[in-house]
Amino acid sequence: MHLTVWTYEGPPHMGAIRVASSMKGVHCVLHAPSGDSYADLLFTMVERRPSRPAVTYSSFDARDMGGDSAALFQDTLRKAYERFRPQVILTAETCTGELLQDDPGGLGKAVGLPVPVVPLKLPSYMRKDNWGASEAFHSLVRGIAGPKAPPGGKRPPRPEGAAPSCNILGPISLGFRNRDDVEEVRKLLDLCGVRVNVVAPLGASAHDLARLGEADFNVVLYPEIADTAARFLERAFGQPSVRTVPIGVGATRDFLAEVARVAGLETVPALDDPRLRMPWYSRSVDSNYLTGKRVFLFGDATHVMACARVAAEEMGFAVVGLGTYSREFARDVRACAEKYGVEALISDDYLEVEAAIEEARPEIVLGTQMERHIAKRLGVPCAVISSPVHVQDFPARYAPQMGVEGANVLFDTWVHPLMMGLEEHLLGMFREDFEFHAGAGASHLVGGVVPRGDEALAEPATAVAEADGDSPSSASGGASGDGAPVWEPEAERELKKIPFFVRGKARRNTERYAAERGLARISIETLYDAKAHFGS
């Protein structure tokens, strides 16, 4: 573990809380100090849940560590059962609670509650959030559905004339657009004539998990959460899995084909839904200028690999960088990166990701909320495609990533930042135009009323410098306090005509060129000379 300002994943016990909070009648009891009870904020403020997460903490403090902390945990477990009356209880410990070595699993079984108590071993100093969620879900499936497995894992054939059925595995609380994705996938399965047996963990109960073995196959939407459980069901119940993630038009068609094959259908349904507008938009005149745009992708493995295909094959982007923080899927992501001729970045250090983005010089970033901040600092458009996310990525509206409507949402989400970026660039280029300069009035007002205030009288060069983060004195030719070359106003204005996504590099190269030649001031000629020097 290491201290950091941002983190892509929390500790593994957060994954256990996510699973418990996703389900009905499941409660998680954690052996934890008082300061570890921060999960409520993530669920109520980020996901905007109407109820608090399904977790209870033993909340020991310093004086308890010198006494019987094990008895404190057992007492907390009893009180949690009496208060919530769950069907199943998960027991685990946080990273701090792990140091006490009290064995919550053994302590929980010793209490003798009338409901199953499922112990979780979550190595906080070795694993992360998604792994903890996967382990918790797998433990529940194995403990509740496992005893109903047929001998030798041989399931009886489907009755003649019965419609095929499946389980949808992986949707979870705090997942990126999981709620809406399930609705889109249901529509795709309806198109195939496949009945949905159980969706889990999101919205499922312990009784639902006991029925998992009744389905003919499983649809694994999010491997980070459901891969381990799906492999167990395949061994125990002989259930094959559909693993194509239907993100984008091509993947959605492939998903339908795989469902048809696994379900034993004679024909593959055609994807001719009139709602599918993304292909037309992608071929439209307005989208032509997007061809070849450089894109950098980073996030969880599922979304990064799926979105890389959409970017390259359906949007016409050039993938110049690709990576994930999901180390458990590093091999899959590396294989995906090879297809696009780039080297995969496997890291959970946002500073390393920032350095890779800066080096790749993309024109758009597709990532998490961390990449949104990084791209903003670098002046590059960004769209969020993966957790971790902020409250704005849990919209009240319907906004899936998968299926037909998901393809439309992807196009809007990715193209709009580029469109807005182009608009900002054009405004920057014409900053000194009579309509756009600082003293010009609003274009919708008759006569172009000039705004009051000192800012309206500011010199154009000063306004340019301030917008770019420089002090007015450096832009107007004053002496630089640190001895760095000073930009002349004309050079500053010319710099603003360079596209925003390479402007920072042009500034650094020019200042480096001037410093190496002992130039105290940077003129337009210096800017052009530096461009010729580094472009040769």
UniProtKB/TrEMBL annotation:
Q: Does the keyword Metal-binding apply?
A: yes
Task: Give one Pfam hit by family name.
Answer: PCP_red
**Which molecular-function annotation in GO is an example for this chain?**
metal ion binding
Q: How is the cofactor bound?
A: Binds 1 [4Fe-4S] cluster per heterodimer. The cluster is bound at the heterodimer interface by residues from both subunits.
Segments of this protein annotated with the region Disordered: 464-488
Residue ranges of every copy of the Nitrogenase/oxidoreductase component domain listed in the record: 12-418
Q: In which pathway does it act?
A: Porphyrin-containing compound metabolism; bacteriochlorophyll biosynthesis (light-independent)
Q: Report if keyword Nucleotide-binding is assigned.
A: yes
Give the protein's cofactors. [4Fe-4S] cluster
Q: Residues in domain Light-independent protochlorophyllide reductase subunit B-like C-terminal?
A: 487-531
The EC designation for this entry is: 1.3.7.7
Q: Which InterPro entries match?
A: ChlB/BchB/BchZ, LI-POR_suB-like_C, Nase/OxRdtase_comp1, P-CP_red_C, Protochl_reductB, Protochlorophyllide_Rdtase
Q: What does this protein do?
A: Component of the dark-operative protochlorophyllide reductase (DPOR) that uses Mg-ATP and reduced ferredoxin to reduce ring D of protochlorophyllide (Pchlide) to form chlorophyllide a (Chlide). This reaction is light-independent. The NB-protein (BchN-BchB) is the catalytic component of the complex.
Protein name in UniProt: Light-independent protochlorophyllide reductase subunit B
Q: Which organism's genome codes for this protein? A: Phaeovibrio sulfidiphilus
User: What taxonomic classification does the UniProt entry list for its organism?
Assistant: Bacteria, Pseudomonadati, Pseudomonadota, Alphaproteobacteria, Rhodospirillales
